[in-house]
Amino acid sequence: MTVVAPKVEKEEEQVVNPWEVSAGKGGIDYDKLVDQFGCQRLDAATIDRVARLTGRPPHRFLRRGLFFAHRDFNEILDLYEKGEKFYLYTGRGPSSEALHLGHLVPFMFTKYLQDAFKVPLVIQLTDDEKFLWKNLTVNESKRLARENAKDIIACGFDVEKTFIFSDFNFVGGAFYENMVKVARCVTYNKVVGIFGFSQEDHIGKISFPPVQAVPSFPSSFPHLFSGMEQLRCLIPCAIDQDPYFRMTRDVAPRIGCQKPSLTESRFSPALQGESTKMSASDPNSAIYVTDSEEKIKMKVNKYAFSGGQDSAELQRELGANLEVDVPIKYLNFFLEDDHDLEQIKKGYGDGSLLTGKVKNLLGDVLYEVVKRHTRARAQVTEEMVDAFMAARPLPNMFG
Amino acid sequence: MTVVAPKVEKEEEQVVNPWEVSAGKGGIDYDKLVDQFGCQRLDAATIDRVARLTGRPPHRFLRRGLFFAHRDFNEILDLYEKGEKFYLYTGRGPSSEALHLGHLVPFMFTKYLQDAFKVPLVIQLTDDEKFLWKNLTVNESKRLARENAKDIIACGFDVEKTFIFSDFNFVGGAFYENMVKVARCVTYNKVVGIFGFSQEDHIGKISFPPVQAVPSFPSSFPHLFSGMEQLRCLIPCAIDQDPYFRMTRDVAPRIGCQKPSLTESRFSPALQGESTKMSASDPNSAIYVTDSEEKIKMKVNKYAFSGGQDSAELQRELGANLEVDVPIKYLNFFLEDDHDLEQIKKGYGDGSLLTGKVKNLLGDVLYEVVKRHTRARAQVTEEMVDAFMAARPLPNMFG
C-alpha cells in the first residue's frame, strides 16, 4: 500500500490539495470543486449584503468572483448584523524568500476584511510545516518566516488589530493544548482520507493538520481572546486549504468550539494558463514582488498564455478567446477600475485590441502593484516585525 | 488491516510495550526481552565500576539485578571517569492521583544516581500523553501532573539540580523544534513497527513518540544546557520504555545529537505474581503510597502470591519456592539490608519460616516505606512544586 490519494479528485484528473494543484487542459473546474468539497457558492446577494453591512463597495475579488466559495460566511454576517464580532485568521507557509503576486491575493483580501469589519486578525506563519515538508533547516524556516512577515506587513495591516506568529516561536501553552485536543479526535485513516498521506510519510506530516486547525479557535490565543471562547472565526483562503478546515469544522463541536467560517478564492493562475497556479518552484510561472520592471514586462510578453489569434489580421477578424487568456485573468485580479477592465475585455474580444497592447497594459498594472508593494516593504523595520509578532493584548482590536 | 503489533513479542506470548505488559504463567522472560530489544545486560563488573567511580555502595536495585539491562551505560561511565559530565532524564505519565510502590522505583533509583554522580536531572510529566490515551480533560491531566510532582519531590530530589516539567506547560521553543526535527525522521510505518499502532488510532498517539524522545537532547533545555549541546544523557527507566529510546537513538545522529544511554529495570510485579506489573487500574495489584497500615497488611496477606506450601506441615517439610514467591520479590525491592534478606530467604526456603511470618515481615517493610514517603510528601508545599517546575537555570547543577 502506497499513496492513498483522495479518490474523487483522481477520477476527475483534477488534483487539489494543500500541496498540489493540477488540472487537465480545460483548467480547474471550480464548480466541480465546490461540489466535491461540499462548500457553498458565494452569490451576488451575499456580496450585496457585505456592501450594505460595511458601508463599503465590495472588494474587486468579490465583485469578480475570485473569492467564489465559502462555508457559513452568512452566519458570520448574521452575527455581525446583530452587533456581534468575529476575528480573522489567515496564514502563510514560508517556503521562499520572495513572494509572488498570487501570495499577496489572500492578504490583500484579508486587509479589506479587517478594514471593512473592524476586527482583529491572527496570521499564522507555518515555519514548522515548511521545515517538515521542504528540505530546510529550522533556522532557515524561521528566517523565511520573518522575511515573509515583512511582505505581509507591507500589505498595510493595522498593528493594533493584528497578531502575526510563527509556529516555532508561539506554539505552546493554550495553543499546544488545543493541538493535542484536535489530534485526539482525528484518526490516521481520517487524515489519509482527507490529505492522501502514505505510510512512508513521516509522522510530522501526519500530525501537522491540528497545527493549522487550532488558530480557528479563540481559546488558542488567551492573550487576545480570554473570556471570548465562543467568538466566531472567519478564514479567507484559497480553496486548496479547504481540507484542513473541513477537518477543523468536523472536530470543533467535539471539543466544545465553534466551527470557523470560510471565504475561499480561486487560484492565481500560472502565466502559462489556468491548469495550475503560480508556483514558487517555477519562477517563470509567476510575477514576484522582487521582479524588476523589465523582468515583469518580459515575463508577461514571453510567458503569459494568450487567447488572441496568431496574427494581427486574424485577431482583428475573430477577436480573442477571453476564457483562456491569461492577461485578462490577471487584469481581473489586479486592475481595480471596473470600467477600464470592461473596455479592455470588449476591445480584445471584438478584435480591435491586439495581444501586444493588452500585454503592455497588464505589464503596467502589475509593475504598479509591485512598485507600491516594494515601497511599502522598504518601510518595514525589524522593530515593526517584532511589534507585530509580540504575543500581546490588542487593546483596540474591535475599534 | 487492523492492529500491527510487534511480531516477535506476539509469537512468544509475551507482550511488553509502553502500554501493555503481559506474559504467560512463567512470568516475564527478561533474558528474552534483552535479546529482542537488542539492549545489553548489566553485569557485575559494571556495577563494581559504578561503586568505584562514585565511592558509594551500589544501590540495592543494582546489587539485586532489578536494574538489569542498559544501552551504552559504559560510555557514560567512560566519560565520567575522564571527568566529563552527563545529565539524567526520567519521567512519569500522570494517569492517577496516587502512586503505587512500583511508580517510586525509578525515582528512588534516579535519586541515587543524582546523588552519586552529582548531575542535573530533568523529569518529564507527560500530561499530554495521558490526555491522549486516557479519557481525561486537559485540566485534570495537568492537575494530576502537579499531584504526582509532589510525590516525586518527596523522593528527596535536590531543587538546585532538578527541573520537573509538564509537557502542557513547557513544550514550545527549543523543545518543540526538536520534536519536529525528530518527527521528520520517523515514518508512519516505523512507529507502527515500534509501537504497534493501528490505522484507527488517533494521530495524537502517532505523533507522541517525539515528545518523549527529545528530553534526551540537551538542546531541548536551553535554560539549562546552553552551549552544552553534546552533553550525554542517561535515562533510568523500566524496560517497557525501551521502544521510545530505540527510536530516539536511531534518530539522534541524523539530527546531529548524541544518543542517550539507558539503564533499564525489571517491572515491580503485581501482588498476584510476575506475569504482569503493578497496575494503577487494578488497586488490588499494587500497594499505594496512600494505603493505610491496615490496608497494606490486608493486601499483602490476602493477595500476595505465595511460593510457600499449602500447610504449615508441608512448608516445614518442603520449604517455599522462592522463584515465584511475591513477598520475597517485594523484599528484594524494598528491604535495604542484604544480610536480613538472605536470612529470610534461607529460612523460608528451608521451611523454618512460614508464609504468614514472611508476609508479616513484608507488611512491616512496606508500611515503613509508605510511612516515610507520606511524611516527606506532607512537607511538599505548592511553592516547592512551583520552584521545581520553574524554567530556570540550575546554577550548581554539577556541584
From TrEMBL, chains A, B:
Q: Which keywords has UniProt assigned to this entry? A: Aminoacyl-tRNA synthetase, ATP-binding, Cytoplasm, Ligase, Nucleotide-binding, Protein biosynthesis
Q: What's the catalysed reaction?
A: tRNA(Trp) + L-tryptophan + ATP = L-tryptophyl-tRNA(Trp) + AMP + diphosphate + H(+)
State if Transferase is listed as a keyword.
no
MF GO annotations: ATP binding; tryptophan-tRNA ligase activity
Q: Does the keyword Protein biosynthesis feature in the UniProt annotation?
A: yes
Enzyme Commission identifier(s): 6.1.1.2
UniProt GO cellular component terms: cytoplasm
Q: Which SUPFAM superfamilies match?
A: Nucleotidylyl transferase
Family that this chain belongs to: Belongs to the class-I aminoacyl-tRNA synthetase family.
Q: What is this protein called?
A: Tryptophan--tRNA ligase, cytoplasmic
The source organism is: Triticum aestivum (Wheat)
